[in-house]
Amino acid sequence: MRNTSALIVGAQFGDEGKGKIVDSLVQDEDFDCVVRYNGGNNAGHTIVSDGQTYPLHLIPSGILHPHVTNVIGAGVVVDPAGLVQELATLTERGVDCKNLFISDRAHLVMPWHKVIDAHLGGKIGTTARGIGPCYEDRASRRGLRVGELVDENNTVDKEHFGARFREVGAHKNELIQKLYGLEPLDLEKELAEIFHLAETFKDRVCDTSELLYQIKTEGKRVLFEGAQGCLLDLDWGSYPYVTSSTVTFSGCLSGSGSAHIPERRIGIVKAYSTRVGEGPYLGELGDYETIKVQDVAKKGEPLPPLSDDEKQKALNGDDLLMGRWIRRAGREYGTTTGRPRRCGWLDLVAVKHAVQVSGLTEVALTKLDILVDIPKIKLITAYKDGDKTLTTFPSRINQLARCQPVYEDFEGFGEVKNAKSFPELPRAAQNFIRRIESYLGIPARIISVGPERSHHLVQEETHVAG
């Protein structure tokens, strides 16, 4: 498995634990570079190292390793304020971020993008961080890029960027006022703030495509890190309840500016499933509208585990309580938004769709430990649409919404955190994993059994070729 490059992509709806796997691979397999190729600071990757938790949003997950080059590619949209805040937080905690580079071709999230997103984005459950409107402007050729803010000499280009900002901003203010009935932005105030922020990251801006070419020419190993998940991909996800970027393998090439095809393509799969925001979600445990009201966690106040009585009700068929059991055990609240995630059983139909559209060669199974001590667990292996049985993920959102999941039941299992190899896992856990592998047709080479960097095991040999 000592290939020269690898792709990490979420094979569900995001929040699969990609950050931990990237961090572990960088440490265990000596990758020299990590490239983030899509999304913005609507993404959230969490790394736990030496008992410390590092939530990342824009910055690649290799940043904790000083010898690793970290690249924000052209396919990412960069919020200047979010980037500077993330840099400051990491620096305060002793992380030297001098190994970070930002593509001059990446687009900038502007103040009007956030205003418009907050006003319009609620219907599909966006994070209101301006990501969708920024990608819209990129596609319609009205966007502003990092290379316009910071010139080829790594100087803040106040003349050029100021003129472009005022031109586009005047049009956006007219839209904000006349179409949406909102207060206009103070453009000069916003512009001054952006110039101030740019002074923090100007020296990190470069032609990252050229940088990656040189890295590959030197024979160094590159890890491509995707944000969100394949089921949120603009083309191949549950449209229109999707993100605004290309999440899948094809996005890795266009978003990084590297034509090198990663030999290992690893899909990150949680042992159950979660989703944030609106849209059909097969296997969901509990009503989402109820969850949004009853399962909100106050900042800094962890929710208690379920009582024995609540657990018994969950086992007797109370889906809301079963979802709450998994949510609290897995701390399933958005890294970026803090919203309670919708929880459900692992949907293998959807994951196989991700395997196919990204050409995945293996999966990394995460959060197996969250299912510990649940006596009966389930996998979705087909959908029922009336009297039809489906084993492929529907492209039509109305068809997906009317489908019902077909389950296979599995015996639960006990503690897995101390397992260092596959045979050391409980037999029931082995059976659960083997069924996932046989259904997907690719091996689960990495199995995460706990939150720490060290809590994972690697299968060198499996019964499924990959």
Please state the second-level CATH architecture of the domain at 270-458: Alpha-Beta Complex
Largest sheet composition: 10 strands, mixed
Number of strands: 20
Total of helices = 15
Rg, Å, rounded:
22 Å
Structural class, from secondary structure content?
alpha/beta
- Strand content range: 15-25%
Q: Can you identify the CATH superfamily of the domain at 270-458?
A: Adenylosuccinate Synthetase, subunit A, domain 3
What would a concise description of this structure say?
The protein has about 475 residues and is of the alpha/beta class. It has helices at about 20-30, 80-90, 110-120, 130-140, 145-150, 160-180, 185-200, 210-215, 250-255, 290-295, 310-315, 320-330, 350-360, 395-400, 425-440, and strands at about 5-10, 35, 45-50, 50-55, 70, 75-80, 100-105, 105-110, 205, 220-225, 265-270, 275, 340-345, 345, 360-365, 375-385, 390, 405-410, 445-450, 455-460.
List the main descriptive attributes of the protein structure presented here:
ten-stranded mixed β-sheet; 466 residues; alpha/beta; globular; Adenylosuccinate Synthetase, Chain A, domain 3; 20 strands
